[in-house]
Amino acid sequence: MHLIPNLQNSFVQVIVRNVPSDPDESVLELVEHFFLVNHPNHFLGFQAVYDANKLSKLVDEKKKMHNWLDYYQLKYVRDPSKRPTLKTGFLGLLGNRVDAIDFYTSNIERLAKEISVEREVIANDTKYVMPAAFVSFKTRWAAAVCAQTQQTRNPTIWLTEWAPEPRDVYWENLAIPYVALAVRKLISGVAFFFLTFFFMIPIALVQSLANIEGIERAVPFLKPLIETRFIKSFIQGFLPGIALKIFLIFLPSILMLMSKFEGFISQSALERRSATRFYIFQFVNVFLGSIITGTAFQQLNSFVHQSANDIPKIIGTSIPMKATFFITYIMVDGWAGVAGEILRLKPMIIYHLKNFFTVKTEKDREEAMDPGSISFNAGEPQIQLYFLLGLVYAVVTPILLPFIIVFFGLAYVVFRHQIINVYNQEYESAAAFWPDVHMRIIVALVVSQLLLMGLLSTKEAAQSTPLLVALPVLTIWFHFFCKGRYEPAFVRYPLQEAMMKDTLERVREPNLNLKGYLREAYLHPIFKAGDDDSETDEASEVEMVQKPELVPTKRHSRRHTPMSSIGSDAPLLNQPAPDL
Description:
Residues 14-173 form the CSC1/OSCA1-like cytosolic domain. Residues 532-580 are annotated as: Disordered. The chain crosses the membrane at residues 186-210, 230-257, 278-297, 385-415, 441-458, 464-482. InterPro entries: Csc1-like, CSC1/OSCA1-like_7TM, CSC1/OSCA1-like_cyt. Keywords: Calcium, Ion channel, Ion transport, Membrane, Transmembrane, Transmembrane helix, Transport. It is a single chain. The chain is mainly α. It folds into two domains: 1-175 and 510-536, no CATH class; 199-491, no CATH class. The protein is built from 25 helices and six strands. The chain has helices at residues 27-38, 53-78, 100-124, 140-147, 178-198, 200-208, 212-218, 223-226, 229-237, 239-248, 251-262, 267-296, 300-305, 311-321, 323-343, 345-357, 362-368, 376-396, 401-421, 434-456, 470-486, 488-491, 495-508, 514-518, 538-546; strands at residues 13-17, 43-50, 85-87, 97-99, 129-137, 159-162. The strands form two sheets. Strands 2-5-1-6 form a four-stranded antiparallel sheet. The protein has a two-stranded antiparallel sheet with strand order 3-4. Helix 2 (53-78) runs antiparallel to helix 3 and helix 15 (323-343) runs antiparallel to helix 18. The longest helix has 30 residues, at 267-296.
């Protein structure tokens, strides 16, 4: 079965970005006329992308005010003899004391007016319309042609790609201008480089903890305590792994913030980029950093005074010396991490903290108990790091393999249970992670083969080393073979299969109202009706925002729209959907 990229619910939906500006037409009119001319028989309609970030903040603030109002009203119901009060200053500690119910009621009314005004401004002001849109087509075949082809001679405008499924869209980044994306990508890449480079400093400090002699030289007065059998075993065994794990706790969140700043428009793309950087970070700092700073870094004089030909031998010698550290790291990070996953200690602690400090109503409690989704950006790179360690040490120090096998066995059982019974599925990416996973497996194979050659050169087996050169060559060739044979299934949709599914669908569901389904599929969540009854008029405002009345044309230049395409039979968004 072919894997369709992000097409579980958006099989006829394409996102177009970098719509060029035009002096004669608005973005809404320009998008409509462009696709009427270039896809006249297949264009169904489109939904514009609006800069609703300010509106989203107002709605979130209103929900918080509603939550506080519910809390104080409940408090007043329990004790009607006393009206609840609060101070309006900093953290409720300063300012004038006012009636809490009246205070939040007035703030909610104020925010409701601001939200109404902001919606009207977004609906009527063209500056809030972003140069992007979700374009719908009548068939999968037409959507596949549009998403996988260049639309104009200028390859920097009218950029089309498969739209993420509606749950997968990261709406905050849709308002970022396309030109700013390149700048953001550069800034994010530079920041990641410096983050990776300067993190070597705490890694070196962590690895120095495993060196008893170094500690005794730095703090000689602690020598009697350090020489105690239990303390010495703890320092050399578990302390480095625990300290390294503490340093890495907040890293996935930092990398996710960097990915959001970079401007990706889907949750799956954010997690894929964060996972890639987390794996690179762990490969450089945890794997290579632990080897180099832990042993070879201590032999810096050897690097300086010896020839370059001896450097692989030094690294090859240092790899077996770090097997003990990686065994303890797998136990601390892997085994303990899997145990913590099944016990859910961290979510339980966070829930009780929220329950004590922030939970005021039953709605707050339900939100605090939400398990969320599995963190692919943190879990998947961790598993692949252990896969790398297993490949490297399978020949060097086989005693490490049982620890990795136990980890993978426990991880399979635990995460299978958690995915089925605990976590929520926030989106469907159609196996978009697999090309990245395959690439990292190939990298792990090549690295293990190169390090094996370095190790054999130190074991009086230098004559066999040239024979091993064929291993990385064949592995890289296999990677390119798989990339050419299987990767297209993850990024392109075969036209033959699209036509076959379109034909079957016309037979099975001849009266499918595709436009009715797609009308609100890519509606910004902020325009949808809220949970509270005070937002009953949102539907009509959404109708106005999402389905503007478009005239056939206002153009005078007609540079893109010939006269033959302008007529009363143009498939406008507010017309009924044709039968497929």
